[in-house]
Amino acid sequence: MGIFSRRQGAAVEASSFGLAGVPSPRGEVSGVALDPALRGLTGQWTIDRPHSRIGFSVRHAMVTTVRGAFADYESSLYFDGERPSASRAELVIRVGSVDTGVEQRDAHLVGADFFDARRFPEMVFRSTSARHEGGESFRMTGDLTIRDVTRPVELQLDYLGSVLDPFGYERCGFDGTTTIDRTEWGLVYNQRLAAGGTMVSEKVRLQFDISAIRSAPSVQGAS
Predict the structure, then answer these.
(1) pTM of the prediction?
(2) CA–CA separation, 2 and 81 (whole Å)
(3) pLDDT confidence of residue 32
């Protein structure tokens, strides 16, 4: 993924690339070369859940913000430093793991009014393309599926760098955000307020605070 395209403290050169195997011609950006350091980052990466947060925030009753996160999810991230267009990313979130800090509210969210977790237990993001917007900023496009409805979304990504941590893990991080209209995925429940407006905003901000670690290479012929 393009978010892994710089070393800690190294400058990023502008590039244009795609994900999920979408080809991107080498000459698409005139006079720009890929950073050779990218080759060393080629491989499979996994989100480190204890040091990451997949969350959201939404306006409640027009005057305050409710924040929550999902504790249970799986990730598959592959970065190709030689050919970034071959990189890909997938995130599968189990909506039943939602946690807003209020048990009654969480039960409402997993019920039929919102996620309907019994019928639609997973929310899925699959990348389709990405581009470098300069400096540490990237833009990633992907398909987001909620309640079996799939629609495209764009994530703004800020790359945080890479490091070898004290436990020997090669780690890199980024922050990602996007805002969606939940009604486009069938999340239409609401209540009108007497003074005007609604109880729950239709706009929801998704937040991805990610620390990814390089996966151990598979051993050929291992039992």
Answers:
(1) 0.79
(2) 9
(3) 43
**Beta carbons of 95 and 120 less than 8 angstroms apart:** yes
pLDDT for residue 82: 63
Q: What is the DSSP letter of 107?
A: H
The 3-state DSSP class for residue 193 equals: coil
Predicted confidence at residue 195, as pLDDT, reads 78
Residues 6+ apart with CB under 8 A from 8: 161, 162, 163
Dihedral sign for Cα atoms in the order 64, 53, 162, 19: negative
Query: CA-CA distance, 116 to 189, in Å (whole number)?
Result: 12
Residue 177 reports pLDDT greater than 90: yes
**What token pair was written down for 39?**
């080759």
Give 108's DSSP letter.
Answer: H
Strand blocks (E) in the chain? 16-18, 43-47, 53-60, 64-70, 73-79, 88-94, 98-99, 122-134, 137-146, 149-164, 170-181, 200-214
Main-chain dihedrals φ then ψ at residue 37, nearest 5 degrees:
-65, -20
CB of 205 closer than 8 Å to CB of 65: no
**Residue 142 — φ and ψ, nearest 5°?**
-160, 175
CB 48 within 8 A of CB 171: yes
Tens-digit pLDDT profile for residues 59-114: 987 788 999 999 999 998 877 656 666 777 899 999 999 999 999 999 999 999 99
| Amino acid making up residue 133 | E
